[in-house]
Write a structure and sequence with these properties.
Length: 291
Amino acid sequence: MSHSERTSSVSAKLTTKQAILGAVLAYISLIISQLAAVLVSQGIVRLGVPSAVGSAISGILYIVLAFLCVSLICRKCFKSTMDSCRITKVSVKPVWGIAALILPCIIVFIYFMMPGHLKNTVMSTGELCYTITDAVIFYGLAAGIVEEVIFRGVIMSALEQRWNRYIAVIVPSVIFALSHVIGADLNFVSILQLLVAGSMVGIMFSLITYESGNIWNSALMHIIWNIVMIGGILHIGVEENKYFLFNYVLDSHSFAITGGDFGIEASVIAIMGYLIFSILAIVLLQRRRLK
């Protein structure tokens, strides 16, 4: 049995109560960990600490709190270890390390080939340090790791252990998409686009987790994507965003191209990217099974 198969195997099937309770607690843990980390960061900044340092602290604290909560859920609710949820020691396969860089680069390249113009946002040194730190540590490392630990780690594993892999792939992916709808000011078409795109990217992350045997490969994909696409470094859209260091303002106003009110993460171009790497994960899974 391969390492990935060992880490994905479980000693006992979960009950319905355990699976649902564990999944709900995991989602609540994400919210509480993030809220606590941000509040601590804000308190530190009010004491005079630079915003960049506060952002770094919030990112690290977010990860630590989430892992503590997940460890507790695995031990008390699942009567198991974090390994059973594919939350293992950090291990990244070269194919997904390369894919993590290729996916956002391809998307950015395609958009840069479209009519539009590049604008730089003038920032002070403090604002620049905060923007980069927030992009890399909070939105990149922290959000990328924690969301994969929760959705592809705990929730996906709980549903798989209780039901099957199909439910384990689809349900957390839909929940992942719905999470981005909450609190967003979107019209009906944008909500539909976001649900499709959010579910597709969730399915991609899930398939990568299954193929690699742990959450770290999908986490790396998630981290790089967040840093490049949403962290505050580069914004691509129909309007300039002053909180981003660089802006590529598109001439096109097509919902399919712009992703509607949510942005290019929900665009047809991004969805095609998610689909391509989902197919790659499926091909690699099938190839491994045939060996």
